[in-house]
Amino acid sequence: xxxxxxxxxxxxxxxxxxxxxxxxxxxxxxxxxxxxxxxxxxxxxxxxxxxxxxxxxxxxxxxxxxxxxxxxxxxxxxxxxxxxxxxxxxxxxxxxxxxxxxxxxxxxxxxxxxxxxxxxxxxxxxxxxxxxxxxxxxxxx
Length: 141
Prior knowledge:
Blueprint: H1 4-15, E1 19-24, E2 34-39, H2 58-64, E3 69-71, H3 81-89, E4 93-103, E5 106-116, H4 124-140
Antiparallel strand pairs: 1-2, 1-5, 3-4, 4-5
Helix pairs in contact: 1-4
C-alpha cells in the first residue's frame, strides 16, 4: 500500500533533487501548506515556512489551469518580485518541476521537485515521474 509520504520519497529518489514537497489544499489561513516532504542531506524544510503566500505566485496560476510547470533556470522564469523572494525563502531555488493534482478540475494538491543552488536541465523521465507522482497522489487523496 502506498502512502503520500512514500510517493514523495520515491520521487526524490528518482530525481535526486534537493527537495520534493506535497502541498494540499486544506482548510485554514494558509494556501496549500506543505504536508509531506523529502529532503536531501542538509536541505532545509518548508513545512514551517510562513513568509510565502502561494496565492500571489505565478506558478500557482498556471497550476490552477492544469499546467505542469518545468523550469530549468528559475532566475529567468518570471520577472516577478514575489517569485524571486520565494526563491530566496526556499533556500536558493534554482530549478523546479511543479505539477498540479486536480480533482473535478479543481487544484487540490501540488507536487514540487526543487533543485537548490545551480540551474538544472530536467529530463523527460524526471518530468514524467513528477506527473505520475501527482496521479498517484490524486488516487490516494
